[in-house]
Design brief:
single chain; 212 residues; alpha+beta; Glutaredoxin; Glutathione S-transferase Yfyf (Class Pi), Chain A, domain 2; 9 helices; 52% helix; globular; binds glutathione
Length: 212
């Protein structure tokens, strides 16, 4: 492989990949974007990271970073022009809570048929506890990271987007004005539009680097 840019294996609608793309964007790191389908993972992606989750960042020296929060930290430690890391420990703790406490309920609410016996309404209610915690925080300050958006905001809003879009009317009817405004602000941002650009699917045949 002879690219001098990091390679990002990505899937457009994956919230973990969104948070990685947001941090690479703010850090102004040029990447080679490789769009995939989760149901048809390329062998080259699985070679890079056999656990087969998205996102994966492969550095020019072949170092592989295959956890989304690690990709965020790697990007922001290189360049953090908006100080997303200013409350790093607290932001990471909240992002971990999103991944471990909220996301399992989100999956069982959104994709209930994939989980034996999962009751989507019960999981929506359980997930709502995390959203209510965000609501309390966002009533105290404009962003989860304080007065300005940072790591926590960008690590978490893609997951709240998924939750909100599972049943938009239900979400709009909840008493979460601060979360609703915060989510709308992020979804309407130029940065979000940029990281949601559509890419053609990567195929080994379309690769200009490995094609020798
Ligand atoms: N802990 C991982 C989780 C990533 C993850 O689970 N991504 C999903 C897509 S949104 C995935 O790749 N799932 C594997 C699959 O569906 O086969 C991270 O933070 O990067």
């Amino acid at each position: 492989m002879s690219t001098d840019r990091p390679i990002l294996w990505s899937f457009r609608r994956c919230p973990y990949a969104m948070r990685a793309r947001l941090s690479l964007h703010v850090a102004e790191i040029e990447i080679e974007h490789r769009e995939i389908l989760l149901r048809d993972k390329p062998a080259a992606m699985l070679d890079a990271s056999p656990k087969g989750t998205i996102p994966i960042l492969v550095l020019p020296d072949r170092t592989v970073i295959d956890e989304s929060l690690d990709i965020m930290l790697w990007a922001l430690r290189r360049h953090d022009p908006e100080a997303w890391l200013r409350n790093e420990a607290a932001a990471l703790a909240l992002a971990h809570a999103c991944d471990t406490e909220f996301k399992p309920h989100l999956d069982r609410y959104k994709y209930a048929t994939r989980y034996d016996g999962a009751d989507p309404d019960a999981h929506r209610t359980a997930a709502a506890e995390f959203v209510s915690e965000l609501e309390a925080r966002l009533k105290r300050s404009a962003s989860l990271d304080g007065e300005h958006d940072g790591l926590a905001d960008h690590a978490i809003f893609p997951f709240i987007r998924q939750y909100a879009h599972t049943d938009r009317d239900w979400f709009a009817g909840q008493d979460w004005p601060a979360v609703q405004a915060w989510l709308t602000r992020h979804l309407n941002s130029g940065r979000f539009a940029e990281i949601m650009r559509k890419y053609p699917l990567w195929t080994a045949a379309s690769d200009t680097h490995d094609a020798t």
